[in-house]
Structures are given as structure tokens and as C-alpha cells.
Specification:
By secondary structure, the chain is an alpha+beta fold. The chain is built from 11 helices and 8 strands.
């Protein structure tokens, strides 16, 4: 079962009040039904969602609903459920129009019920275990996509809108925002699953960043040490060591012994093995002086 199907099944098992059920149903019908003059047809792949919508229709309108089960062999073999309504069509059509009425949805609970109906009708969410974070609502008409976008904004769900082939797509790619949607849907089991994977991936990414940072720092230390070894060799070749004070001479002798260590490590080694107490900044200061000596010598020899 897909991650999306698990969320939808969890939504379908939640108890709602009468008004919330009405909004869920009318939103679902608006976004996932074929409305003709004398028939309303609903196609649903998930048996539990189909049963949930069936109960909502039966409860609100007390009508007979024809159920057709077909085997679909596109991509993979699966059952699809078709609910066919032929009674009270005009009443249902008029009720569906309420969703677009600016005065119909008023409270946060109303907009959350709209979200539930929209999710059941149009939404898919990537399984975070297998791919990146992505949630999308696929909607046929532009006007309906704009209505959905506006209603979702009432819940601080700010989806991006994209035209894709014959449909319109509202989508989220931020893990935190997708998590917020799951909280509003009260899909607790799927939320815990999503958050567990999110925490694991965030931790893994942080460790990778730290490792990369450590590697980059180590490469920088080694490169710096090798450059200083070259500078020391230049001093010796040109009889410039005599220009250094005693501290600098001690430091270059230890740098030759430990070319791969950082300033901090070199300072600690020198402090432990000699009477010289020095820190990281002190090491750096002495090598700056050495570079100045080399720079002046090179300048004088090129005249």
C-alpha cells in the first residue's frame, strides 16, 4: 500500500461532526466526480475511501447508490470502485456549488474539512523513505485550483500552483509544511512515520555536512602545512634562518617534525615538549613574520 493510500485510509476512519462530513463530501464530489444531467459518477481506487464516501452520501441524501467493481490492468492489476448516483441529482449539484460560496466556509474546522475532502479527492504524497518530500493536489479546472489555493491559505498552507498538461497542480516540497498538513488531517500514524524518517534524514544530512566540513578543514590544514614546509626550505636554502628569533626557530623545527597538524595541535605539542608557552594565534603570528622575511628577500633578489 502506498503512503498516500495509508493517509487516505486513516482520514476515512476519523469521526467527524455532521457539518464537517458535509463539507468533506461536497468538496470530494466537486473535485472527484463526473457530473452529467442525470448521473453523478465517482471513481475510486481505494476500497476504504470508497466505502467512506458511500456512507457520507447515504447518510446525507438517503438515496440508492449503484456500486460497480472493475478490474483495471493499466500498469498493475487492481480493483476500482465506481459509485453511480441517479437520485436527487439537482439537489446534490446545488449543494456542491456551496463549496465555491465565499460564506459557506467560516471556521478553521470548516477549512480543515475542506482540506480532508480535497486530499481524498486529488492528493498524492511521496513516501519520504523512497524519495524526496513532495505533496501535490491535481485539479482539472483552473478556477477550482484557485479556489483550493485560497481555501488552503486559510490554514497557512501556501501551495505553489503549476499548469501541467491538462491539469493544474498545487504542490508543497518543504518537509515541515507537509508535516503540518498531516497534523491538520489528524493522520497521526502517518505523521509519526513521516517525522521519524524526516528526523533520520535530517540527522544523516547533518552528519554528512560535518564530515564534509572536517574533510575540507583537514585538507586546508595539510595544504597550509606543506606551504610552510616550502617556506622553511626557502629560509634554509637562502641562509635566512639566522634572521629568526629563538621562538620562531623552535616553531619551524616543530613544523618540520609535524607538517600535517593544525596550528592548535602544533601549539599544544610545542607547549608540552618545550619551555615555550604558545597558542594558535602565536603560531600564526610567527609564520606571518616568516612570510614577510621571504617576501622581502625575493623582492631584493629581483632588483
Amino acid at each position: 500500500m502506498t503512503f498516500t493510500a495509508k493517509i487516505k485510509e486513516e482520514i476515512s476512519s476519523i469521526e467527524n461532526n455532521i457539518l464537517e462530513n458535509e463539507i468533506i463530501l461536497l468538496t470530494y464530489l466537486k473535485y472527484n466526480s463526473k457530473i452529467k444531467n442525470d448521473t453523478i459518477e465517482i471513481v475510486q481506487e481505494n476500497a476504504k475511501v470508497a466505502r467512506f464516501i458511500y456512507k457520507l452520501i447515504k447518510s446525507k441524501y438517503n438515496i440508492d447508490i449503484k456500486i460497480i467493481v472493475r478490474i483495471q490492468k493499466r500498469f498493475k492489476t487492481q480493483q476500482i470502485y465506481i459509485l453511480e448516483i441517479k437520485d436527487k441529482i439537482n439537489l446534490i449539484k446545488n449543494d456542491i456549488k456551496k463549496i465555491a460560496d465565499k460564506n459557506y466556509l467560516e471556521s478553521k474546522e470548516d477549512y480543515t474539512a475542506f482540506l480532508k475532502g480535497l486530499f481524498l479527492a486529488t492528493c498524492s504524497v511521496n513516501d519520504p523513505k523512497n524519495s524526496g518530500y513532495h505533496l501535490e493536489f491535481t485539479i482539472k479546472k483552473q478556477v477550482d485550483s484557485l479556489l483550493a489555493k485560497k481555501n488552503l491559505q486559510k490554514l497557512n498552507i501556501n501551495c505553489k500552483l503549476l499548469k501541467r498538461e491538462n491539469n493544474y497542480m498545487l504542490y508543497l516540497k518543504e518537509a515541515e509544511k507537509i508535516s503540518d498538513v498531516l497534523k491538520l488531517l489528524k493522520s497521526i500514524n502517518c505523521l509519526f512515520y513521516f517525522e521519524d524518517i524526516r528526523i533520520y534524514r535530517d540527522h544523516k544530512n547533518m552528519v554528512n555536512r560535518l564530515n564534509n566540513c572536517d574533510i575540507a578543514n583537514q585538507e586546508k590544514v595539510i595544504k597550509n602545512g606543506l606551504k610552510q614546509i616550502e617556506d622553511i626550505a626557502y629560509l634554509k636554502e637562502n641562509d635566512l634562518v639566522r634572521l629568526l628569533d629563538e621562538k620562531s626557530q623552535i616553531i619551524i623545527s616543530y613544523r618540520e617534525k609535524y607538517p600535517e597538524v593544525s596550528y592548535s595541535e602544533l601549539a599544544e605539542i610545542i607547549s608540552l615538549e618545550t619551555d615555550l608557552t604558545i597558542g594558535k594565534s602565536g603560531i600564526n603570528h610567527h609564520f606571518i613574520k616568516i612570510r614577510e622575511i621571504i617576501k622581502k628577500h625575493k623582492k631584493s633578489t629581483t632588483k
